[in-house]
Amino acid sequence: MEGIWIWLTVIVAILGIGVAAYFAWWVTKQKEGDKVAVIAKAIREGASAFLGREYKLLAIFVAVVFIILTVVPSLGWRVGVTFLFGAITSGLSGFIGMKIATNSNSRTATAAEKSLNSGLKVAFRAGSVMGLSVVSIGLLGLSILFLAFYNTDQFLAIIPAYGFGASTVAIFSRVGGGIFTKAADTGADIVGKVEQNIPEDDPRNAAVIADCVGDNVGDVAGMGADLFESYVDSIIATVTLSAVALIAGESGTTLVGSKELACVLPMLIAGAGIIASLIGIFLVRVGEKLQMTALLNALRKGTWSAAILAAIFAFLIVWFLDVNLNIFWAILSGLVAGVLIGESTNYYTSYVYNPTKNVSKSGQTGAATVIISGFANGLMSTLPPVVIVGIAILLAHYFGGVYGVAIAGVGMLATLGIQDATDAYGPIADNAGGLVEMSGLPHEIRDRTDALDSLGNTTAATGKGFAVGSAALTSLALLLSYTQAVGLKADEVNLLDANIIVGLFLGALLPAVFCALTMNAVGKTGYSIVNEVRRQFKEIPGLLEGKAKADYKRCVDICTRDSLKEMILPGVITVLSPIVIGFVLGKQGLAGFLTGSTVVGFILAITFSNAGGSWDNAKKYVETGAFGGKGSDTHKSTVIGDTVGDPMKDTSGPALNIMIKLASIIAVVLAPVIANFTGLF
Length: 681
Description:
By secondary structure, the protein is an all-alpha fold. The protein has one domain (2-283, 294-674). It is built from 20 helices and no strands. Helix 3 (77-114) crosses helix 14 (416-439) and helix 7 packs parallel to helix 15 (443-485). It is globular, with a radius of gyration of 24 Å.
């Protein structure tokens, strides 16, 4: 019977891929526009060149890990092949998102000439290609692994390798793309807006094409790989805990009737989420009011409808399969937590609300007060997500024990199809605004794309908040899977044990070191871009007057070269850390390490993402005319805040999500190797 349910998930996944293909076809059939087409082609070529070089480097690393996993006796070729499969599908989801984004930015700009709703429709459908591809490819990949390996004795040891492969590609894609996009953005803003006092996306600025390229390789391809691995890791964590689903929960009743059903259940919940997301996507539409509240409500209609439908579908699945109703309540706790975290992020980052308005207001007294208020806002924004996740964990554990906590993560990510669509929409709208500015289209079109871009900043921040929350719940579920896999019992975990304490400290240290490396990487690459843009303004006669053309390709080449070089160290440290800790401090020390990295990584990721999002939208609010508007001293102060926040919200913060999940999934994969290893001390 379980085999029939797996084939059902295959059908749902194929349906999602089919709708994504239809949206991609529809978007490419829209008019591109002659003026924007030439610039869009340069962005497309730059993004493809970067991703091609990045994937070549990744292929070498993936091949080395594949060989190591294959030759280790306690792992074997099945683990190696599954790892490789995960890496390929993760890379594919990011590639699809990048391709549709670079083909839709110009079409969004042209559609905005007609109406605001037309521009939103093109950008959101393009983003939906990304969202649906991530969840559908992820579910299809896991379904294939079920059909191939479920009847083998090593199935529960094999399937985590799929998440390992996905996470490996995600960490390098997110870090490399994040360094690229924020270095280009930093260079463009510092020299263009602050020093030369020219508009954003002005064609005289040599870094503007690199900035647009970065939006696609960082905020689309990188985020796609990030959420892909969150999605599959949450399902994998629940599957690996299937054995404990047979144990009575806190209420004293059996949770699931069989281990097989416990394995299949998260797949069915994920499939139901895809259907709910499809319906929600078709409900998104907006009128012609250039108001943030109207645009936000248009997207909320889709995301909230999808969440409600996902809850209804989950209840029907639990009821039909005669699973204990407690499992539904655990799923619902995760689903509701995801929605609430998204709304919390929206409150702290959107200029509709006071926290970000106050950051804009602080710009009247200079850049220093913008930095202070924005960072304080980011720190304060950690309160709701931590409380929400904490309550969700307590409820899920009460209703379903450790299995309930894991499946709550699946519930939180059930509507990822539409959540990722709203996230991928952001950089597409941002690119469209840049194309309108660079091609000299009428001002009223730029007003529409600015409205879409402002919404995109908020949806991107909300998506990052959603990703952080899901990362925390997924990492906890993976930690629980690890303790089960190595046979670590509750009475063996002594918080006074030296190995556990040292593991906690080292785990807490990893996010700090990771952030330092990625922030510094953006700083060094941005330094090169700033000097290059300054050089061109100085050495190219007539550039500032608009009589000469900037050398865009040079900035793209610098960003590509430096970001690929700088991404290696943070990624390698993340991969090696849990391996070294496991062999030095043993299975107990590694449990402490994972706990420390998850907690601190969660806090820092929220702080960095929301502080950066708040600074970005504070600048956008001033650009609407508040506190003096564009060109005022307040505007210049908020531009500096935005520049500081860019690497925080688009490089370090989002990459922390992957870092904490990657460390946990590596521990689960290595569990058979270190299960009986007590460490060197």
